[in-house]
Known about the structure:
The structure is a single chain. This protein is α+β, with helices and mostly antiparallel strands. It has one domain (37-151): CATH 3.30.1330.40. 32% of the residues lie in helices and 29% in strands. It has three helices and seven strands. Strands 1-2-7-5-6 form a five-stranded mixed β-sheet. Strands 3-4 form a two-stranded antiparallel sheet. A hairpin with a 2-residue loop joins strand 1 and strand 2 (34-41). The longest helix has 23 residues, at 59-81. It is globular. Pfam families: YjgF_endoribonc. This is Endoribonuclease L-PSP/chorismate mutase-like domain-containing protein. InterPro entries: Endoribo_LPSP/chorism_mut-like, RutC-like_sf. Residues 6-146 form the Endoribonuclease L-PSP/chorismate mutase-like domain.
Amino acid sequence: MSTIAARLAELGIVLPTPVAPIANYVPFVRSGTMLVVSGQISLGPDGLMAGKLGGGVSIEEGQKAARQCGLNVIAQIQSAVGNLDNVIRIVRLGGFINCTPDFLDAPKVMNGASDLMVEVFGEKGRHARSTIGVAALPANAAVEVEAMVEIA
């Protein structure tokens, strides 16, 4: 068992099946040692975590949605490279938070995905990040997360 697979098991995490794109794009692109993962929405085993932060969705619910996006990102990484031990570094996460114009805690929401990367990958999971509040996301998802990953 790989080191990251063992870590996932230790955390009690079962990765979801990667979601197929719903438009004219691919779920990831590999160029040399860089892997870019397309935005993953907050679709989990109980369905889509939807709604607006600041408009009925709490920060805690948003963090759970961001964590689910992170799980979906990791599932796409595994689909792309097979063994997650091939991850050298999570280089960057980009987070899009579906929120009201006056919601100012988008970075707190995005911590749900950021914290997951560090839990799973340790120091290799520490990353640069952008978090942007947006007026809408596909299917009214609460959160969407994209990633850039260095791979062996």
